[in-house]
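Sequence and fold:
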Amino acid sequence: MTRGPLIEKMLNEAVSVDFVETDSVLEALLFEAYEIKRIQPLYNTKEKDDKSHNYVVVTKEEYPRVLIERGRNLESKLSAKNLPAGRQGLKLKAIFGPFPHGSELREALKIVRKLFPYRDKCIPNQGKLCFNAQIGLCPGVCAGKIGKKEYGKIIKHLELLFEGKKDRVVKSLEKEMKTLAKEEKFEEAQEVKKKIFALEHIQDVALIKQDLDPSPKSLTPNFRIEAYDIAHLSGKDVVGVMTVVEDNERSPSQYRKFKIIKDKNDDTRNLKEILSRRFNHPEWAMPNLIVVDGGSGQMNAGKDVLKELGLEIDIVSVVKDDKHKAREILGIKNLVSSKNIQTNILEKGILLANSEAHRFAINYHRRLRGKGFRI
């Protein structure tokens, strides 16, 4: 291992070991990232320097957004002008991280956002509720449901939580609850009380990735499935896509689109082109499993590309019936046996990735065809 000598040096020089006990895995995850950023420890070079890791950023705006940004892109996004609307020249109020494991961070944010809904994409005071506001993940910034002062409290609580200062958040909420009770705003006080209870009883089993049972198990932590599909109309306007499922959950932010430069009604050739182009991006996380749509021809085409590139990655193919429903998964039996994984768990991830690839490819093709797509 490349870090072996450094770790050995650290162990030889260490004179004591200390630890901080947290109430939950969630708090441990957030606190570790905060301490690495604060202390910049010499022997945490991987967590400190790897530009592919994720950071949580709070923007400096009237109604701050909470976003996930890649370390390698963060610096350029702070000053770039040729970025999509809403991401041009980001001004940041706070940065938290690095978080080496993206899936763990996403699970953490799911928990945090239920407690403290925040804005990420919507436009303030646009007059209607965004999708996240409708499902309780945005406090209604978009529809003017919350003022700057109240929203600022939410952001402050989030920042304290990411700094590992849950106790301060709880104390602040307790003070707010008492104030509301004195003002006889009992319903609002009850909502605050629920948040306090939730903070003190955080359920974060999803973040615990250890499995000591030697029997057939779930997917390994951060198990990444990439699925590929082609869409065209009689060999014209050919496009391809890559979709990503991590830990059996969709990861739309990592989906990718490919335009096939030379139209041809040859799905195996087109698949080879897409896979070759995909693996020209070493900055993208490497998959544990590749899923292609079709039969043995498509699977063998994928294997040929991987062999040429010297990559040892498992690959399966989803065979469809005449109604385009999954009938069989070629290669799954050997995969289940070699990886000691439950068939139903692996099937779920494969079929989810495959259906997402088909949907994403069709939508992409229709959209471009509607625009008179030609290269």
Remarks:
- Confidence is low (pLDDT under 50) at residues 80-87, 209-216.
- The CA atoms of residues 215 and 319 lie 29 Å apart.
- The longest strand covers residues 236-246.
